[in-house]
Design brief:
This protein is of the alpha/beta class and about 375 residues long. Helix content is about 40%, strand content about 15%. The protein has a seven-stranded mixed β-sheet, with helices on both faces. The protein has a four-stranded antiparallel β-sheet with strand order 9-10-13-12. It starts with 14 loop residues before the first helix and ends with a helix. The structure holds pyridoxal-5'-phosphate.
Length: about 375
Amino acid sequence: MKTFSDRLNKIVPSASMKMAQRILEINSRGSSKVVDLTFGQPDFDTPEYIKEAAYKAIKEGRNGYTVSRGIPELRNAISDFYQNYYNVNYDPTSEILVAPGAKQGLMYVMQALLNDGEEVILFEPCWLSYRDMVFLNKGKPVFIKAKEGLTPDIDKLEESITDKTKVILINNPINPSGYVFTKEELEQVVEIAIANDLYIVADEIYDRIVFEKFLSLSSFSGIKDRLIIINGFSKTYAMTGWRIGYLLSCSDVISKVSLIHQHTATCAAAASQHAAVGALTGSQTSVDAMVQSYQRRRDLMCEGLKGSKFPIIKPAGTFYAMLDVSSLKVDPQESVEVLLSQYQLATVSGICYGESAAKYVRLSLTQDETQLMEVIERLRKS
Ligand code: PLP
């Protein structure tokens, strides 16, 4: 009997994708009233000026393989963005790698850094894919439980380090809670990483969807050789289907990661790279408008549920929010079923993001304000 690799035994399907499939099935039966709050995908279309940049490149025949690390125009645009926005310098020729999505970039990084059994520290609640990426690369995820209110517990970081620890993974702002790390918390992480000679992998894909002060780890000086920034276009520019993201680090890390990229994807899709150049170099007013809309939705939900039996944690960034469903008095997986059957709301169970989020569900606020008013009404109905 032919078998699969042992490493696959620990991998679980994505909870949000599983729920999305269920909603599709429910909707295909017709007359469904289910409001889908599961998917981590902007409900906006990619702005026109970005599509135009791709059409132009396609029509001009720029459709072949590109330089593996990404077309120079895109690496220059990313470098200029970091210079102008964060006042930091990343050399476009040696310190930037364009990948087919931030997720793929993260997978490359895990492949590049982890040996069997090496540990990656993750703060709960965290995006489920991290855990599986670590497992797929034979590493071991080590979770630090969140404090009450889902604040990451940085004070537990030092004691979680063992002689197998290789990486501290920071997702800032956090999917699913929308938490934004404070300067002091980041300083603490950096200090501990230096003292223990660890890598920091910083997934900052929601860096532009922030409603309060956000500090990128890239702005800390003297840590470029241990810091790998992951970012991309999916969320900020509503470009999830274009599959385009990037990594920033020192030239040594980028050249190692680049080996994996060369032998797997070769390069990110040419049209997507040209679209991404358009995204960064064009007017940012559509980004501002989308972020303002996410902020209005957040405020609407937080105000609308005030005093209800479903308290919500106010997110400082992202388009997610964690809803406390402990008043339903059922176990975590069951709460999602109750919300679906009794409230016609599709959500993702907090337990998918770590045990400390068990009494919550994640809401993706990627529905318009009218739909969110309906969500509030349903949640307040009893
Ligand atoms: N990182 C986080 C925290 C995410 O939530 C997601 C998508 O949901 C990604 C990375 C994936 O980004 P991309 O679409 O660029 O692969």
